[in-house]
Amino acid sequence: MTTADPLQLLETDALTGLRGLPDASVQVALTSPPFYLLRRYGTTATWPDGWEGELGHESHPNEFVRHLLDCFDQVWRVLKDDGCLWVNLADTYNNRQGKKGTTNAPDGSNGRFAAGGKGYAESLRQQPEFFKHYIPTIGHKSEIGVPFRFHLAMTDSEFRRFVGAAPGPQWICRRTIVWAKSLVNLETQQARGNAMPEPTLDRPSRNYEFLFLFSKRPDYRFDRKAIDIPARSSIRRGDRANCGSVWQTDYQVLADSDATPDGLWQINPEASPYRHLAMWPRSLVRQMLLPTTRPGDTILDPFAGSGTSGQVAIELGLNAVLIEPSAMARDALSDRLDGLNMALPL
């Protein structure tokens, strides 16, 4: 990558792309890997343990975590010593049968439509992947605990060995942040935000995801003042009533005594015009990059999707290396760069 090309897109799988990057070449890595059993992107890779398939569709979550470690071991190598890594993950439910009758039937049917028919195809299209895969060692309807398994495997060498990974880097988790897509004031029953509604009635809705902040060493670059907010004591009320699973009595981003955003960030999702590509809100990416980079630094996103991280990086005067095998991602990036009067390097 040259100064003439501040954005580099590697159209390959994450592990292959990472292996080709030089040591200590990026200041910050930030990414949202495919969530376990959530959706298919049509990409496959061969992994160091010999498994061949699409990341996020392993038979057990520990195998998924092991493959994530394969990728983030390479991120460790590519990251500068004072750099940091942001990882966005959410959990998945273990379901023996989906609400529309989807099962792992040997004949390929889903319990409601015969295999191959139009109704069958439409039913499957609407179903998250976790409705089609059941893990017998985990209870029916239980959260699988993927983010927690990942956190432990990244930071605890014993748990890393437990998931079957070879010895590797030991990351330091500096903060676990809750990205709340909506918040509710229980006193007024007013909500703020626009999390995706869910039809389930036997548990609180899923309106948050995790952001893990990792570093290679205890001392790393983080400028708290870059995301300082004015201290406030007033309560802001929302505009609709919809209790979610984040329960608190005010709507402010939680702040410590220095008025720095702490462990709960309420940032509304942004709608994606790109089918199958989940989008980070640009304000979320800025919140990650502002305290951890200087102008001219290089950032890395090994699961770049539609390229929000690259767009925000360019807007902040940074260089970006994005890895994404999907052709749809190239089209999305081209659209984003058009708005910045830039062209995607060939």
From TrEMBL:
Boundaries of every DNA methylase N-4/N-6 domain copy: 26-325
Record flagged with keyword Transferase: yes
InterPro entries assigned: DNA_methylase_N4/N6, MeTrfase_CN4_CS, RM_Methyltransferase, SAM-dependent_MTases_sf
Enzyme Commission designation: 2.1.1.-
Swiss-Prot/TrEMBL catalytic activity: a 2'-deoxycytidine in DNA + S-adenosyl-L-methionine = an N(4)-methyl-2'-deoxycytidine in DNA + S-adenosyl-L-homocysteine + H(+)
Signal peptide: none
Keyword line: DNA-binding, Methyltransferase, Restriction system, S-adenosyl-L-methionine, Transferase
GO molecular function annotations of the record: DNA binding; N-methyltransferase activity; site-specific DNA-methyltransferase (cytosine-N4-specific) activity
Domain of life: Bacteria
Enzyme class: transferase
Gene Ontology BP annotations: DNA restriction-modification system; methylation
Family as reported in the entry's similarity comment: Belongs to the N(4)/N(6)-methyltransferase family. N(4) subfamily.
Protein name per its UniProtKB record: Methyltransferase
Organism: Candidatus Thiodictyon syntrophicum
Lineage, uppermost ranks: Bacteria, Pseudomonadati, Pseudomonadota, Gammaproteobacteria, Chromatiales
